[in-house]
Amino acid sequence: RARIVINAALLTSVFEAAPSGGLLLDAHGVVLGANTRCAHLWGLPPAALVHGAHGLPQSLIAHVADPIGFATRLRHLDYHRNDEMHDEIVLANGNVVELHTAPIVEADGQLWGRCWFFRDLTQQHRAESLLREEEDKFRGVVEQDVTGICIVTDDSRIAYTNGTYARIFGYTQE
Q1: What does DSSP say about strands 111-120 and 150-152: parallel, antiparallel, or unpaired?
Q2: What would the DSSP string read from start to end of 35-49?
Q3: What is each CA distance from 119 to 89, 102, 163, in whole angstroms?
Q4: Model's pTM, two decimal places?
Q5: In terms of Cα–Cα distance, which of 6, 10, 4, 39 is closest to 23?
Q6: What are phi and psi of 97, to 5 degrees?
Q7: Are 106 and 112 in contact, with CB atoms under 8 Å apart?
């Protein structure tokens, strides 16, 4: 019995220390375990993830920007219980969460439950958006410049030329 308690404590500690939100449901959708990152990512009170809570995936629908699309993906899992799903979900608050879920299947093929993992991609998406905006600004300035501009890589390949450069040297801009 002591060994079981120690193993349970170790697994709980590892689950809680994970860098992503984690959720474990039994085959009927009852919560078996969740870490605090999961509640935080979804903006849920920790009480929503207590052992024995029912209907959690359905309650997440209220927290997404596209509830119909998310509900459709959840229904797919109801009918294809052995499928995995990997997706990016935009939450109603604008945050972006990467979702990965997979069935937990016994050696004999019986479905035991489902594990869910969630990772916050909001900062990554914001940084990518800012980078695209800066690239667009740069490209706009460079394209309008009357000076011929040519960007060459370290291995002497032409990476970019603006229209003025192409006209000066008689190239087509590609």
Answers
A1: unpaired
A2: -HHHHHHHT--GGGG
A3: 10, 15, 42
A4: 0.73
A5: 39
A6: -125, 130
A7: yes
Residue 117: how many CB atoms within 10 A of its CB? 19
The DSSP line for 92-149 is TTS-EEEEEEEEEE-TTS-EEEEEEEEEE-HHHHHHHHHHHHHHHHHHHHHHH-SS--
Model confidence pLDDT, tens digit, residues 31-60: 888 898 998 898 888 777 877 777 777 778
Question: What is the Cα–Cα distance from 100 to 115, expressed in whole angstroms?
Answer: 8
Residue 174: the pLDDT is: 65
The structure tokens listed for 111 are 């479905």
Which stretch of DSSP H or E encloses residue 165?
helix 163-169
Helix (H) or strand (E) holding 59, with range, is helix 56-60
Positions of the chain with pLDDT lower than 70, given as ranges = 173-174
Q: How far is CA 154 from CA 131, 151, 157, 159, in A?
A: 22, 10, 7, 10
Smallest CA-to-CA distance from 41 within 130, 116, 103 is with 116
What six digits make up the tokens of 65? 């920007």
Under 8 Å CB-to-CB from 37, ≥6 apart: which residues?
18, 19, 20, 21, 22, 118
